Amino acid sequence: MTDTVIRGTNDADSLAGSDRDETILGAGGDDTLDGGGGNDVVSGQRGDDQLRGGEGDDLIRGGPGAD
């Protein structure tokens, strides 16, 4: 688990991490999530999401919807 958490909203969000280790949570909406560098956790949650880990050792979690 990482110390930095980036949270989306119930709308469609475009969220990107940095070169650090982060957890990126999409919430609702059809989100685009990109972990960037670092060892990240990228979680789409609800909606039809586009998920990218980026560089590093990442954990990608989909959710309900077409991720």
TrEMBL record:
Biased composition (Gly residues): 26-39
UniProt keyword list: Secreted
Bias kind Basic and acidic residues: ranges: 46-60
Example of a GO MF term: calcium ion binding
Keyword RNA-binding included in the entry's annotation: no
Alphabetical list of Pfam families matching this protein: HemolysinCabind
Compartment(s) where it occurs, according to its Swiss-Prot or TrEMBL record: Secreted
Annotated segments matching region Disordered: 1-67
Protein name: Alkaline phosphatase
